[in-house]
Design goal:
- This protein has 249 residues and is α/β, with parallel strands linked by helices.
- The protein has a single domain, classed as TIM Barrel, CATH 3.20.20.70.
- Helix 3 links the parallel strand 3 and strand 4.
- The two termini are 12 Å apart.
- Bound molecules: 2-phosphoglycolic acid (PGA).
- 2-phosphoglycolic acid (PGA) binds next to strand 8.
């Protein structure tokens, strides 16, 4: 199976012109481009080989109606959106996204036929208490995030993104590829241990946190890792394309 490479542009770039040219360059098979939502309608016709995703959806599953402020997955799907990030640590920290809200968003995305990318990952404080604590923390986030979709059917991507590894510009993270591989293995094992609840789901495990040209090869050796969620490096198309080439040949 080819690995999935997800470009999380976060709140970049500054102009639609730059967004269109970045998307044209990064549009490849097995790539998911996740721009800021206002660029979505324009990028719908640009992203052809890869897929388009959004950085958030609301737990409202309608294409129209009296839902002030809501950005529903069903509505976004009309603009070619196939994936959505949910529960990113930046949204948890800056926008107060709770596990309960995340669980509703996951359900609403799946109900609308959008593939959720649930982000989980421990903070530095938790990691400093040891790997066992970090695993407990991550599995707890996982359980709560997936709480409303047990026994259902569909495809879910779990992105393991240790908070301490995000936006470090590749420094000191490659050393921990085994820890990342093990955590994703733990996540998959945890879900398959309650087979009845998750048997009908296809679970994909990706790693995110300062993935770059220099360390992606090391992470790639971990068999449990099915792909990558790339932040800062996805804003530099040459580097991003090199990552895609290393990952999928
Ligand atoms: P980063 O971001 O690659 O810049 O660390 C990853 C992410 O936050 O999804």
């Amino acid at each position: 199976m080819k690995h999935l490479v997800i470009a999380n542009w976060k709140m970049n770039p500054m102009s639609l012109k730059e967004a269109i040219s970045l998307a044209k360059e990064e549009d490849k098979k097995d790539v998911v481009i996740i721009p800021p939502t206002p660029y979505i309608p324009a990028l719908q016709t640009v992203v052809k080989k890869g897929s388009l995703g959004v950085q958030d959806v609301d737990p409202i599953n309608a294409v129209n109606g009296p839902y002030t402020s809501a950005l529903s997955p069903a509505f976004l799907k009309k603009f070619g959106v196939r994936y959505t990030i949910i529960g990113h640590s930046e949204a948890r920290a800056n926008l107060g996204e709770s596990d309960a809200i995340i669980a509703h968003k996951i359900k609403s995305a799946l109900d609308a036929g959008i593939i959720p990318i649930l982000c989980v990952g421990e903070t530095k404080e938790v990691r400093d208490m040891g790997y066992t604590k970090a695993r407990e923390f991550v599995l707890d986030q996982l359980e709560r995030g997936l709480d409303l979709i047990k026994g259902g059917v569909g495809k879910i991507i779990i992105a393991y993104e240790p908070v301490w590894a995000i936006s470090t510009n590749n420094e000191g993270v490659a050393d921990d590829s085994e820890g990342a591989g093990e955590m994703i293995q733990n996540i998959k094992a945890h879900l398959s241990s309650s087979m009845k609840l998750w048997a009908q789901y296809k679970i994909i495990g990706v790693y995110g946190g300062s993935v770059g040209v220099n360390n992606v090869g090391v992470f790639l050796k971990e068999r449990s890792i099915d792909g990558f969620l790339v932040g800062s490096a996805s804003l530099r198309s040459k580097e991003f394309l090199r990552i895609v080439e290393i990952v999928n040949g």
